[in-house]
Amino acid sequence: MNVVDHVRDMAAAGLYSNVRILSSLLLTMSNNNPELFSPAQKYQLLVYHADAIFHDKEYRNAACKYSMALQQKKVLNKTSKVRTSTGGAAANIQAQSLPSEIEVKYKIAECYTILKLDKDAIAVLDGIPSRQRTPKINMMLANLYRKAGQERSAVTSYKEVLRQCPLALDAIIGLLSLSVKGAEVASMTIDVIQTLPNLDWLSVWTKAYAFIHAGDNQRAINTICSLEKKSLLRDNVDLLVSLADVYFRAGDTKNAILKFEQAQMLDPYLIKGMDVYGYLMAREGHLEDVEVLGGRLFNISDQHAEPWVISGCHSFYSKRYSRALYLGAKAIQLNSNSVQALLLKGAALRNMGRVQEAIIHFREAMRLAPCRLDCYEGLIDCYLASNGIREAMGMANNIYKTLGANAQTLTILATVCLEDPVTQEKAKALLDKALAQRPDYTKAVVKKAELLNREQKYEEGIALLRNALANQSDCVLHRMLGDFLVAVNDYQEAMDQYSIALSLDPNDQKSLEGMQKMEKEESPTDATVELDGDDMEGSGEDGDLEGSDSEAAQWADQEQWFGMQ
């Protein structure tokens, strides 16, 4: 047993700090005396030294050392050919015990991926012949291809993963997200389902995620519920998070929060999906709970985007937009595929008047999550803020045609129509259709109430809002009902409605202003009431576009640091 074997054993035992020191010394000795170690031993030392550096998270340095190891392997291959031709059987045995060259290339690609050098990572993995690619190499390639927009190559790599590992469920989700038909994906797992026991649920699971990525939220909900009710899969955290997320996409905030809470109770260390949960809680005005949630997740891990997004949502709904911008940027730095982080940063930029920058972030969110309507709503909101009604109308019509006439798409289209005096009647018809499908859909109720206010149809508006509040309690709806009641001189009940709104969201400035106005003015005018449903538009963010931000200067340096200027 030689000294290189000792290094190998320490590396296998995970003694990386010891490996790093010893291998560094031995490599220096080898440089000063090339005859001290054989080419194979020097290759081993370089790989073990690079592994130790990788463990210390010095990824650029590790990539350099792995590349040096590959150069040494080329020298070794040349000498090995000479020895093999002379019948050196011992050389073949030694070559088989050396660190895998394919594994070294994977490590280089892993370093590049962490450093966000995706093109370099793809180039390294592309250099590996297809037949030599392991499942993890194909999986990394598939994810990199998808991120780069090379969908056909991504599909090919995901399929190769499934061919080798038919129970690779994340590869199944990857294929479905790239619009591969559910039936085709299911056919790739049929053999293993028929061979192994207790896998009859897999075809239903595949169908559920096919519905999710096709934007068919209701069928996705029904399918996941049928899975969740099965005794063997009851209380599965991943299914509950997926169900909560689909409820959120369908605009059912109440059930989304309920399922997120259920998942969180089953797994107190849950991180996945908590950014959406925190956003919903912040939007509903539960800022104290959001602050607690963010702090708890930071204690679990500050290397995930979710706690940063949650804290950003708390700042955003506290109208501290500059801080929300910084936190959103930090989340994106940790995970560039975080849709919720992109939406947070986009919303903060929009509310700070940086609309063109916001548009870039909403477009990227759309690319990553083409079936999430809040991404489109954020972009449409930016177009309307910059008087781009034509662009907003084009986007709204495209959503309507692509995803069909449901309550959400009808409301989005109606929202744009309300901005043009020529299309007011069309907006009214669209909202009536939306409310016929879902009478409790809050965004449609808000827009219809705004339209009735413009027409000064206060009694009709009061009836609409009372009907909507019969089965739910929402801050905006209570506040708007208070505004309508002021218009018909019912001051006492208006005060009650403002009080209810503030109990649901103590930070709702509009309700507070309504109460203060009533206290100051004993006899209100008959002018049209000011209603504000803007916080129901876009991705659901509250706040005045011109809101003051006392922390702007404090966070300016951080914004520059994270490249947000």
What would you say this structure looks like, in words?
- The chain has helices at residues 3-12, 16-32, 39-55, 59-85, 89-97, 101-114, 118-126, 135-147, 151-164, 169-177, 182-187, 190-195, 202-213, 217-229, 237-249, 253-266, 274-283, 287-300, 305-317, 321-334, 339-351, 355-368, 373-385, 389-403, 407-417, 424-437, 442-454, 458-469, 475-487, 491-504, 509-520, 552-561.
- It is mainly α and 565 residues long.
- Among the domains are: 1-77 and 99-128, Alpha Horseshoe (Serine Threonine Protein Phosphatase 5, Tetratricopeptide repeat), CATH 1.25.40.10; 456-520, Tetratricopeptide repeat domain (Serine Threonine Protein Phosphatase 5, Tetratricopeptide repeat, Alpha Horseshoe), CATH 1.25.40.10.
- α22 (355-368) packs antiparallel against α23.
